[in-house]
């Protein structure tokens, strides 16, 4: 198993990996060109100096990714060097051209992140249960692949190996496009008065969460993957134009078809750890707007050993009550409904959605 690692780049991803490795008793050294970022990450991870690390993880912005990989490969010929960039394109070819130690290089992309950037948002469990894409290559050494698989395991992720072109095509659809859509929708809210936005439900907050991401970082990512992303955007724009015309023409069939395709696509998304997505039932409960009400519900859940999978809260300023909707398995939902009713909570009929 990996004994020591140097992480170059003390941002969200690099520091989170540092915390995950530290929790697995790996000696970790945090390095960053920004002294303040390096110090914060070093304090969080309890960084130690390592002269010859077994693994070097490059977690820097795309614009300096290739240069940093070359520097680390050339300066550390006995170390495996791994990058985490979200766009791969011709990276492996460039590394082979520019470094005599390319056999020690392996490219990964952990499919995890947060809207909070920097080490302040780092979490040791950021990658737990998430996918991590490894870039397969005919020249990838057995040692580099083994170290990469160990890193993925230590972070609690699941590895998927594919070519660089496959990677760029799939992340354009499942990562880059959601970021674009979230930013596009949030941008439409600028002209809406804040008191009107008080009317927004949880759905708007969910879909605009990604819009809080670092615009400098994401502009680099989107532009770096322009070849794979351009046709994906063209298809989306075409679908939206068809919807626009359907709504203008009051065409219910085409409008319903657009929404049905969306539901079909959502249903294809797997559940945790790649398993089939679970079907939940939803239990709405009206609670008073006073301290301790949520805690009371959670305590009752613990008493009867039911597991809440998700929840949402609807509450407008000045409102004396709020609506909490709990997502549970079918069995737990009925069990909790009966129990909360028996202890005086205002539970409403179970509904599917």
3D architecture notes:
By secondary structure, the protein is of the alpha/beta class. The protein folds into three domains: 4-162, Rossmann fold; 168-268, 6-phosphogluconate dehydrogenase C-terminal like domain (6-phosphogluconate dehydrogenase C-terminal fold, Orthogonal Bundle), CATH 1.10.3660; 281-347, Alpha-Beta Plaits (2-Layer Sandwich), CATH 3.30.70.260. It has helices at 12-23, 35-45, 62-75, 91-98, 142-154, 164-187, 194-197, 202-207, 215-224, 226-248, 252-268, 293-303, 330-342; strands at residues 4-8, 27-31, 55-58, 80-83, 105-110, 131-135, 158-162, 281-288, 310-314, 321-328, 346-347. It has a seven-stranded mixed β-sheet, sandwiched between helices. β1 (4-8), α1 (12-23) and β2 form a beta-alpha-beta unit. α6 crosses α10 (226-248) and α10 packs antiparallel against α11. The longest helix has 24 residues, at 164-187. The radius of gyration is 24 Å and the shape is globular. The chain starts with a strand and ends in a 6-residue tail after the last strand.
Element layout with pairings:
Blueprint: E1 4-8, H1 12-23, E2 27-31, H2 35-45, E3 55-58, H3 62-75, E4 80-83, H4 91-98, E5 105-110, E6 131-135, H5 142-154, E7 158-162, H6 164-187, H7 194-197, H8 202-207, H9 215-224, H10 226-248, H11 252-268, E8 281-288, H12 293-303, E9 310-314, E10 321-328, H13 330-342, E11 346-347
Parallel strand pairs: 1-2, 1-3, 3-4, 4-5, 6-7
Antiparallel strand pairs: 5-6, 8-10, 8-11, 9-10
